[in-house]
């Protein structure tokens, strides 16, 4: 019988360990002789710390119980800056940590205290009271002078994409009746807020460094560490056993990791650093604020004629990152005329970075809210307007789609949700004293793939282990890769395993941009196919007779009939065959002639209690076109998680600020905020992107979600809200 593992719902292979507490995360790791570190961070947004106070406070901290070392700008050994090719496209900082006494943002690392226990390290760090010479800070984008802003030309996710783009004429010719819309949409700063705090353990053995870290990019972290420390990459090993949530905060090497390595070398012992929840807000990135201006023009029949999307966003003084909110506007709807622009204002805040759905999450809030409002002005059903303006090709690149089934998503999603029963007039639905609204929006996210490697090791007893320097971040990648491996080899799931989290394994890209299944899965698939062919060649060579050989469910078939189990063949072949079946492959990702993009349709119902200003999402339906689905159970969980992520973005989440410091509460959705879900997939394989036919699912679930909720609230209340999060105060205001 065929294995047919791909396409079946299966529990996570590491699920038992996670449920029983046996799973080991970075902060759980214990190394003999390990000591502990704590950070000292700046309390001002811009200025300079005085050298005298650094000496004084470092001396005081060094005298505290259990303290072994205090690392400051005055005694930190010189670190090497990163080359332009790393600081340009990625949110790596140009300034090395503790490089000088200058302060660029609140929460900047000012010292690292190493002590025998975590408690002693924290107590000594809290004793340090540095003196500052303050300087004027830019805390809001509006405060940044035009001369200090910049307009980057391109943004690199996995391929280069235009941030400044234009097609069509300077304006729309008024040869017919036109309907237009202009609106400004604002999104706040968002924190990643994963359950697992970032943690690092650095250990030196001579001139070789081992780092245990909560990272989602082992290969990149090793490269950046080698650059900063000025040592060859092959002297660094990075281990990341399991990652307990990240959403972008663990895609990159942050400066506390470098300081931990420097401190470990200084004290000659392994050093462990676990960030506090407050330090996660200042030390591991965030989604920056955006201010987006949309201008849409359509004719009276609802044909979109012009689209303009201008984004103002922010970065830190130390990095080049840009939130590319206008990217989906370039291709999502057919528009003869288009203008997109992005302007970045450096503010005195920590460095932002990718966060789940970078560009698409804030950008689709603006675009899909504006599209909904324009459809309402035209007197058109919002779904009908989107169907009418569906883009048949990728207008931005002038290329066809590798596969697009968005209209099928619209049709199925509308049927699932019951959209045809939606009254067009706002405030027409009630449930007792509650106003009820129905909203929808389009979801989209690129289908991407990068080159990746996979190692396969076979033992004479029949065990087959695949390995790649990728990560299990809670998305079920180990399970999905085992399913791919089982099908490619013809073995049952129980006979294969997939190992992650070690830089000694073949290189893999970072676990982000919804690319891991396509990228690493292609390598696993190639390794499995090669393994199967090598084994069959061995069997064919035993008797040399003509035969059609295959492997199904761990059994070798000759002309469709079982002749031996794989375990028996491996036992007979011994070490020689096991060595033949142990090798490494690399699956290169070329540049396809088509555009690979995932699409989908989100529909939701909200209840609004206008007496107290509360909005509740009660029902959610989503239909997505993401290629082949490896594990439906895991895929549905991914989409549900993405939607919950978007609910937080729409109704709760924003980082509060007070004079540049992050203070107060950060609200996130809880179990009480989760609606009833109806998740479906179109499931047409996209083998242009990869041999498995998959496209990523991790981020499309959150793309467009905030707009769906805002559109549903408009339908419930008649209030068109263009700023996130949608607060109690907004819902209590009278409709404009």
From TrEMBL:
Keyword Cell inner membrane (UniProt): no
GO molecular function terms listed in the Swiss-Prot or TrEMBL record: iron ion binding; oxidoreductase activity
rRNA-binding keyword on record: no
Source organism, top-level taxon: Bacteria
SUPFAM superfamilies from the UniProt entry: CO dehydrogenase molybdoprotein N-domain-like, Molybdenum cofactor-binding domain
Domain Aldehyde oxidase/xanthine dehydrogenase a/b hammerhead: 20-136
Name of the molecule in the record: Aldehyde oxidase
